[in-house]
């Protein structure tokens, strides 16, 4: 393989492996970024919820596909909560995110872990296992929202 091609592949692999290194030109971009990642995550999480709650028929492959997106998206928003991104666009993010960073990180780490377990659960192809993991993951979303998101 040519050197340029292998360097390009290595650079792309790094970009995928290190989403937390996202840098933003301005606070508005960081806010848009975190809101976008959370929005995409919610869309896919909602599709799993529809199966878990019996609103749509259980489809094991769709559950895995959606859980993969959820687990990937779960890693992204946190880079968008850097210093100075508490305002700039309409946001429900509470000031506590910046004044209690360690607690906020505990919540985001928990959510990343829960979405990882959700993906493992989806891959068992067992609806009851998926339901339990969905509830547990939703609980981690809610706990963080209650503490760090205004209504
Ligand atoms: C969702 C979604 C959230 C969480 C939360 C869980 O589907 O968009 O923010 O679940 O409602 O309580």
What would the keywords be for this entry?
Four Helix Bundle (Hemerythrin (Met), subunit A); binds ascorbic acid; elongated
Question: Could you characterize the architecture of this molecule?
Answer:
The protein has 151 residues and is mainly α. 68% of the residues lie in helices and 0% in strands. It has helices at 3-17, 27-52, 60-73, 96-99, 101-122, 127-148. The mean pLDDT is 91. It binds ascorbic acid. Ascorbic acid binds next to helix 2 and helix 6. Residues 42, 45-46, 49, 138, 141-142 line the site of ascorbic acid.
**Global Rg:** 17 Å
Bound molecules: ascorbic acid
Quick one: overall form? elongated
CATH C-level label? Mainly Alpha
State the helical fraction: 55-70%
Strand count: 0
> How is the main sheet built?
none
How far apart, in Å, are the first and last alpha carbons? 54 Å
What structural category characterises the helix and strand content? mainly alpha
Q: Helix count, per DSSP?
A: 6
CATH superfamily: Cytochrome c/b562
Unreliable runs: none
Number of separate domains: 1
**Share of β-strand residues:** under 5%
Based on the coordinates given, report the CATH architecture: Up-down Bundle
Which fold does the CATH topology refer to? Four Helix Bundle (Hemerythrin (Met), subunit A)
Taking all residues together, what is the mean pLDDT? 91
Q: Can you write the helix and strand succession as a string? A: HHHHHH
